[in-house]
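Good day; I would like, with your permission, to put a structural problem before you. What I wish to show you is a protein chain and, alongside it, a tokenised description of its three-dimensional fold. I would ask you to consider whether the tokens describe a fold that such a sequence might reasonably adopt. You will find the record immediately after this paragraph:
***
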Amino acid sequence: MTTLSQALWVLLLGSLLGLELIGKVPPTLHTPLMSGANAISGITVLASITLIANAQDNPALLILGSVSLGFALFNVIGGFLVTDRMLAMFSRKKSGGAR
């Protein structure tokens, strides 16, 4: 088995395991889980940038690094937007009149 096929199997199995675990999380734990996912995605962003910087003339590494950077940034930005919306639900509404 080549290194690439091993890496693809790890990606596939990790994705399926993550999907199974995330599906069983109750809604009350969603915000702490999102914070952890954002932290992991931040690490993925740094790893992707390092991979792109060290790829030199290898187009496979450049493509892999670019795709992983895109997915990680999508997850980080989406996580911040969802967290912002959830926090807005708990903020006090400003009333138009004086009380």
